[in-house]
Amino acid sequence: MNLPHTPFRAAFAALILLPLGAFAADTGDSAPSDKEAAATGRTFAPPPPSIIEHKLMDITEDEEKVFAEMTSGQLQQEEFERRVVAIAYRYDELVARDPNNVETLILYGKFLRRLGKNTEANGFFVHADHISPNIAVVKQQIGNYLAEEGNYAEALKYYRKAIELEPKEAVYHYGLGELVATFRDKYVANGTFSEKEAEDKLMAEFAKACELDPANKDFAFRRGEAFYDVADPDWNAALALWIEMAERTNLTPYERDAVRLHTARVYCELGRGREARELLLADVVPILGATRARLLKRLSQDNNPDDDKANVEITAPSIPEAEAKKKSHASCNSNHAALNCRLSLRAHRGRFSSNIRPPSARDA
Questions:
Q1: How do the domains of the chain map onto residue ranges?
Q2: For the whole model, what pTM was predicted?
Q3: Which of 67, 86, 181, 256 is most buried (CB neighbours < 10 A)?
């Protein structure tokens, strides 16, 4: 199987002035040239795994440092690109030394995905899968690529295989849940799942991810959001989840406000308009302001005197509590398209995560 041609030498050659040889010092011992091998008549074997592993650790440490500095604004784009190319050269050298080293293939593939070179990255994952067909993270990465390309049928096979290989890895269950949620209509149409089976599957996978990694906030958020994905959600279970989320002490201001709005939304679905309004009284971070305004508007559409006019019209006639609850519930459930308040964090998280956690290539 041919390895993919890496894009960096061609795509970024104009961005740097240093020739290939200038980066050799970064990688320690250089591989012998063809001329040297021919002159000596010696056959040069790949270096021992320990040497490659040591080099991979150095590369991934530098990789993390570069991306951290770029994220924090410490690097200009030109310097970032120069250092990225240098890292690519170092990966290239290791691949040239041992084209079948799975650790190198996986880490290089993750590096390329990080740069948005998903097709090239997938070539390395496919090659790694050909060499070692029972590595869960490779199955996951190929599944990610297939899902992003819209090949949902094959993606499902790879995700199921990843879970079969490592059933206790939370991120694989999360990914499978997201896959089913994203392509639910397609899976129902081709007979893979019934509508009920698809809903049960996505809910179960998100729940399993949270069970295996209860400290992961992203998994917990997505599990809560999944109640909006099903036709007949258990709103009381959703409420319990969001109330539990609110008790976490490590939420950012954005996450704390998002949890509060999610909880208000669920109260609304349960017909508990007063409790929803109490949660909406406080302001939120600017990015969530429009969602809060939509929820407040929905609550006021019913003109429920018990919820909306108590503060401005003390003598307003009362209506039976059951009728008020019914009206509040109806107000919250009508015109869901206009509400549009899922508060999805998927754009922030990334739908199909690459999960780069060096130095271990096999870490999900």
A1: 1-32+45-100, 234-333
A2: 0.71
A3: 181
